[in-house]
Batch of 2 targets.
Target 1
Amino acid sequence: MGSISRLSNSSPTPLIFPKCVRVCQNRTCRKQGAAKVLTAFEALPTPEVTVTGSSCLGQCGNGPMVLVLPDMVWYSRVLPTEVPLVVEQHLRGGQRVTKMLYYRFHPQG
Ligand code: FES
């Protein structure tokens, strides 16, 4: 009984999903420089953020595509030179980089 009342009085534990950056490494994005984008992210590790290459994200021709989870923020035509901005502003600062957002999923930017 004691443990049941203790459970019912406890506040719910918030679900926190770790941030993950997925950089498409499929054929079309690779032709557009996705390997260098992935390397640029890996060169700037951020605590508690995982960076992985991914299979096709279904947006071929707009790459290199980068998807930040769980935020569901999509960046398109990402250049290696833009990666430090994404890392600093989005991953570390919590603010999406408006000018790099993928227009199909973020039409208002
Ligand atoms: S190849 Fe990258 S989105 Fe399809």
Target 2
Amino acid sequence: MGTRDIAEPEGIRQARTLPAAWYSSPYHHERELLRVWSAQWVCIGDALDMPEPGSWRALTAGRAPVLLVRDRDGELRAFLNVCRHRASPLCEPGASASGAALTCPYHAWLYRLDGSLARAQGVGEPEGFDVADYSLKPVGLVTWRRWVFVHADATATAPDFGPLAVAIDAFDLEAMDIVLAESDERSFNWKVLVENYSENYHTPFVHPEIDNSNSHDYPMVGDGLVLYAWDRPLQPNDAAGRAMNELLPGEPGWEAVAMATTGQPYDRGSYLTVFPNLMLNVFPDAALAMWVEPLTVKRSVVHRRLYARKGADRAAVAANVAAHRLVHLQDVEICQRVQRSHDAGIDADGVLATVEERGVFWFHEQLRTLLAIP
Ligand code: FES
Ligand SMILES: [Fe+2]
């Protein structure tokens, strides 16, 4: 069987790039925070980043102030970081604390680690007031593989990432060690990075160090909340290579991709964009997770974790870390330059490459659907 054809997504030939205002207007940003970030499961970190038993940590997911609390029995919960009295945050974003209970810094209402209100000292006798009705408001929380997601709506159904999420089922990602953990504030709208991640068109020009020999192509399929791309070897020489060449994720035999052996960074990769904000590279011996957090319309924090298979060769791990750092900085540089054009309010009115930018098209389609913009 030869290399599979992947159907061209309908509408890509007519597609145009997004207007500058989508990357620079506070009004547009507010709309996105409401319709995208408050309406989706968004990645907030690796499971190992979560608080220890008896402690908590505050962060912002889109525009939702979130308090992650792990009780003493180890159960992790998420709440809105907003006191039920007069809305003081219980903990400053980015800060952590631990103890037997949470005390609001404003008027000292006291919450248990399960979010229930234990005491509202000095409140007197407001009519109809019952502490049982004043628990912290819950936020949806799930872990998929080793990444934690929250949803501003606690009643949201669990995420269904769609049929392509199985592409990395056979990889034992949970057993990998974190070998690099970095978070950096950058001068670009969050979408600029997701677009950059979701295409390989720029690779020969922005990352000349990556081996671009003609040994593989780079198909991309978007289905539901996952965009999947992979290094498809054109002349496979083992079971893993044959699976990547002949099959699509989920087809019988696909799991062989996890058995590939490779000696160099950025080889035999599976690349997933999980809408809206998680980007994953999965290799036989290593993985990378990157999730982006919008600070303002023009600034974002990029969190990265690089993983290595336990017992992986130290030199290979060091080579991976070095390759990743270089590639990431090259991407950041071009993304920050692109943002300058957006900041100047200049529309590129561009088209999308009909093969190489299918991932960008998929991403824009997700956004347009949620924003209800044709
Ligand atoms: S705002 Fe929290 S106790 Fe008043
Ligand atoms: Fe890149």
